[in-house]
Amino acid sequence: xxxxxxxxxxxxxxxxxxxxxxxxxxxxxxxxxxxxxxxxxxxxxxxxxxxxxxxxxxxxxxxxxxxxxxxxxxxxxxxxxxxxxxxxxxxxxxxxxxxxxxxxxxxxxxxxxxxxxxxxxxxxxxxxxxxxxxxxxxxxxxxxxxxxxxxxxxxxxxxxxxxxxxxxxxxxxxxxxxxxxxxxxxxxxxxxxxxxxxxxxxxxxxxxxxxxxxxxxxxxxxxxxxxxxxxxxxxxxxxxxxxxxxxxxxxxxxxxxxxxxxxxxxxxxxxxxxxxxxxxxxxxxxxxxxxxxxxxxxxxxxxxxxxxxxxxxxxxxxxxxxxxxxxxxxxxxxxxxxxxxxxxxxxxxxxxx
Length: 353
Fold this sequence. Notes:
Rossmann fold
């Protein structure tokens, strides 16, 4: 890497004095996957500033994912109501942060970044109300010098643009809490190695069929694995369908906390599921993963891990798409066309690695 590559890549001329930075805030609102994919940035920041206070602001429902994360000092939660956000804004202001990174970019996160009053507020030019940011690094594609970049790379580029070393591209990581392991043990005591399935998804264009997941469950059971399947309480219809389609017993979980799901994923011999936050959890605890893709962007959302992993998909010219509906075929052929044979072959390759 030459000297030019080490210079902060930002549209601002005034660099951050990192020697005087003592309090750092990282804002990462939204989903499970977004939160997991922020961990490489948190790892890079802690490595760069081992003595600094590093806090992360997360939405209340997803915050337990990082309660045990060793590279941060505090998880700050924000609820959905205006009163919650005002209280958090006041709390952030009193914390007197030196540098704030917004890894999200929406209106709420921008307003909270501004509310901190930090001298250095880092966000991309494309963000809502970008004038509220004091530092606007160049886009991820320009930073990494290639057109397609992963979500984790986009977040890392925001840090790299103001001088944080990120060139080695840290992978996702989640820490498993002992409390979660203990509470999970009261609900699940496998008799042998187990495989974890996640058959649910937010959009039907990303959800592989229960019948195909059942085929995979039967195959894995034939290889000697006990089968577990996880989803949220609002997705238990998918779990019921899986159980009905399967000729082998399946341990069903629809009431686990996020730390318990993390513990469950960490103990699995292999994970098989749709592109989802749970897939990113599995990847972040180094479980071998096979992820089935339909409408979503594979370059942006594939597992970000050094553990054995494969993504399974069939190419369509309309990919990726927003995923709310299939505007081209009327039904999501991208996900429906993936066969159980394709997924089983990927499982074999991942287990052989």
